[in-house]
Structures are given as structure tokens and as C-alpha cells.
Write a structure and sequence with these properties.
This protein is α/β, with parallel strands linked by helices. A hairpin with a 2-residue loop joins strand 9 and strand 10. Helix 8 runs parallel beside helix 9.
């Protein structure tokens, strides 16, 4: 959903009111006020509501990040400066208001860094607003590690008011097609396997990834080469600085591939969606079937919702166009 000329539904009105209460009459965060943890299923308008709130806040001393982007920068900056506290100051400066979109915790290694990040933000008395597909109690859902994150969940509950935004309608299913951004791409039903040889792209640290085709501002990957390789969201973010149009070919039903391959597709779609870059997917099945029946891969519902926004076309039409 966009934030322009939108009539809010009742759940969105409630969420928007909770966010507005964070600001004084000058649009600045109120002193010693709790933040907001806004959660619900994909497509319910969480990002739109948060972005409207962020736009209304006073322009000085505020920061808004997609959590994938911030976390990749936090990793790199912490490594460079040797301290997470220094990294937070370098990235956020003196911002009193910090907004994270699509907050999530799936990996125990990331969880420990996220715990330190939150402790640093809370200690600095910054007003924090996050959106998430998960209520706090379901963060780091892996039963092998969840108990180790419970103290951090308790600190989240101590500092943030939990607001549910989970209306009955996934607005992405009724969105209009755009000629720019992510939605300028297409979802192509295509059973043919890619055949191009391609070339290797540098990812840094001596690593490469094979691309099927490369143009000055566009890149085409085979699913197996990109998502079947040990690539990360940070790699995709780095590549978005070079390529403004993306095509991913040969995407099989995700139930047929290892879970880590499916998780990389989730991360890739998140990165391209947040960067609002045109994305064309060539897959054997429509998005709902593509992601169906896949166990133990977080956030697939969000991926299906986002891919479902792309106009669906048949490969035969594409080849004759």
C-alpha cells in the first residue's frame, strides 16, 4: 500500500493513533515515552501507517530503515569500529526517533547482536517504532534457541507498547499495477530452464556469484546460481547499488528445494521490495502454489503476498512480445 490518498481501515486507524501519541504538538518524540511494536500479517498496512507517522514527525533527528538494510550495515560497521555502541552512534547519530520496518529474528547468531542493539537503543532513551509479521513472543521461533531470546523479548515488552494491525484484507491483492518500482516487474509462468552461460560477479572477500546476463543497469540470475549459493541479504543489498532492474529465472516450487534456498528467495524479495526495484520472476507455478507446503521457512507468507502483487503473464506471451 502507498501512503498517499489512503482512507484507513479501523485497524489502521487504531495503529495510527498509537503512533501519533508518541509525538508532541511539534512532531517531536515525547520525553520518556514508550515506543510501539506494530505487528500483523503481510499486506495489512503496517509499513504504510508507519511511513505516514514518520513523515509527520519533525524532520530533524529521526531515522527510518528496513531492518534487513540496517542489520547489514550494523554488521559491517560493528566490525569496522569494534563496538556495537559505536556502530549505533555512527549509523543513527543523535536521532531521537528510530523506525525499523519488517523487524524479525530467525537466527541465534543474529539474535545475540539484535539483543545488544536493542539494549543500546533502550539505554539511549531513543523512541523506537518497529513493524513485524511476528508478535514479540514469536520472535526467534526455533524451539532450540527461543528460550535464550526470552530475556530480550521481556525487554521489548518493557519498553514498547504492542499494537496489533491485522485486518481481514491483504491490500496487496487489490493493488494497482505501477510503471515504476518493484511492481513494474512481472511474474512469468515459465517451465523452461535457463540455458545461458553467464558471467561471474564479484561479491567481495574473494566470493563470486554467477549471473545469466548483465547490462549496465540490469541483471538476470538463475535461481540455482543465486539462491542455491551461499549468498546473503547483505550481498543482495550490495548488488542493488549496481543493478536497478532484476530478473530471476528458473524458480521451482520451493517445497522441492532445501530450506536455505527458499530462505534466500525470501531475503531477496524483501531487499528488492524495500529498494523498490523492478523485479521479474520466472517460475513454474503461481506464487501461492510456489510457496505452498514448505515447512520451517519463516516469512514465506510475506514473500507470496509480495510476489502476488506482480502482474501474472504467460511465458509464451513474453517470448512473442
Amino acid at each position: 500500500m502507498t501512503s498517499e490518498a489512503v482512507v484507513l481501515d479501523p485497524a489502521q486507524v487504531t495503529a495510527a493513533a498509537a503512533l501519533v501519541a508518541l509525538l508532541d504538538r511539534h512532531g517531536r518524540p515525547r520525553k520518556r515515552h514508550r515506543g510501539v511494536y506494530l505487528h500483523g500479517r503481510p499486506g495489512r498496512g503496517k509499513t504504510m501507517v508507519m511511513d505516514r507517522f514518520f513523515a509527520a514527525a519533525a524532520p530533524e533527528r529521526k531515522r527510518r530503515y528496513h531492518f534487513h538494510t540496517f542489520f547489514a550495515e550494523l554488521h559491517a560497521t560493528t566490525h569496522a569500529l569494534g563496538s556495537i555502541e559505536r556502530a549505533v552512534i555512527a549509523l543513527l547519530g543523535e536521532a531521537d526517533l528510530v523506525c525499523f520496518d519488517e523487524f524479525h529474528v530467525h537466527d541465534i547468531g543474529d539474535a545475540m547482536l539484535i539483543a545488544r542493539l536493542l539494549d543500546t537503543l533502550f539505554a539511549g532513551r531513543r523512541t523506537l517504532v518497529v513493524t513485524s509479521n511476528y508478535p514479540p513472543a514469536e520472535l526467534l521461533p526455533n524451539p532450540l534457541f527461543h528460550d535464550r531470546f526470552v530475556p530480550t523479548i521481556e525487554r521489548i515488552l518493557a519498553h514498547l507498547d504492542v499494537v496489533t494491525l491485522d485486518g481481514p484484507l491483504d491490500y496487496r491483492t487489490i493493488g494497482a499495477h505501477r510503471d515504476s518500482g518493484f511492481l513494474a516487474g512481472r511474474y512469468v509462468l515459465d517451465a523452461e530452464a535457463p540455458t545461458a552461460r553467464g558471467q561471474d560477479l564479484d561479491l567481495g572477500d574473494g566470493r563470486t556469484v554467477r549471473a545469466l546476463a548483465v547490462a549496465p543497469d540490469a541483471v538476470t540470475f538463475d535461481f540455482t546460481h543465486l539462491c542455491g549459493a551461499p549468498t546473503s541479504a547483505a550481498d543482495y543489498l550490495r548488488l542493488t547499488r549496481r543493478f536497478g532492474r532484476w530478473t530471476l529465472r528458473g524458480v521451482p516450487p520451493l517445497r522441492e528445494v532445501p530450506p536455505d534456498w527458499a530462505m534466500r528467495l525470501v531475503n531477496l524479495v524483501d531487499v528488492l521490495y524495500d529498494a523498490d526495484l523492478p523485479c521479474t520472476i520466472h517460475a513454474r507455478e503461481p506464487a501461492p502454489e510456489l510457496t505452498a507446503g514448505v515447512p520451517a521457512v519463516p516469512d514465506l507468507a510475506r514473500t507470496a503476498s509480495r510476489l502476488g502483487e506482480l502482474p501474472l503473464v504467460d511465458a509464451a506471451i513474453v517470448r512473442t512480445a
